[in-house]
Each structure stands twice: as structure tokens, then as C-alpha cells.
Amino acid sequence: MGMLAGFSPQWSMKLIVPWTKMAPSQSIGRVLELLVPAQPKDAALTLGKPLSGPDQFDIRTRQLRETAPWITVAPYFAHNLPELLGSHPQAR
To answer: Which of 1, 18, 38, 91 shows a CA-CA span of 20 to 30 A to 7?
Structure first.
């Protein structure tokens, strides 16, 4: 089985796809990404280290802001989701 230069077998599952910018949708819509921390062993596979939940959140938030700045990012336990989406239900 061949190996990529510079990659050891233990890190073969590491995400190696570079982040590219995503254009916003032309339709009217909003995106709210709720981030859930990975287990330490899973974080080690994708981030290279078994990072804490807050550290994972910081890294993923930065990646999403660089890739798709039009996406709102929040932790999975966030409240007031309509506010985060920028929409407020109106009484009818």
C-alpha cells in the first residue's frame, strides 16, 4: 500500500483538502452552523491534536469564517436561534 510523502499511517484519515471560499447563495436564505465538539480521538484525526471543545470551536469558527463568511456560527447549546439567523417572528 502506497503512502503520501510526509504522511504517516496513523494520520492517514486527517483531512487534507484545502479550504476554498464558497460564494453565498443567490436565493434568500440564511445558514446557521451549530458546532458540536468532537471526541478527543476524533479531533486528533481531523485537527492533529485531541483539542478541548472550546479550542475546536475556535478553529472551526475561523475556518468557516474564512471559507464562507456569510454563515453564522454558534455552539450547539446556543439560545435565541431566530436572533442568530437575523429573523424575528412577527405576530400576525
So the answer is: 38
Mind listing the pLDDT tens digit of every residue in the chain (92 residues)? Answer: 343 344 344 433 444 445 567 776 677 678 889 999 999 899 999 899 999 999 999 999 999 999 888 889 999 999 988 898 886 554 33
Angle at 37 between CA 67 and CA 42, to 5 degrees: 90
Alpha-carbon distance 11 to 4, whole Å?
11
For residues 82 and 59, give the distance between their C-alpha atoms in angstroms, rounded to a whole number: 24
What is the C-alpha separation between 2 and 82, in angstroms, rounded? 49
Residue appearing with cell numbers 456560527? 73
For residue 8, the tally of other CB atoms under 10 A from its CB is 9
The C-alpha cell that represents 25 in the structure block: 447563495
**Taking every pair of C-alpha atoms in the chain, what is the biggest distance, in angstroms?**
64
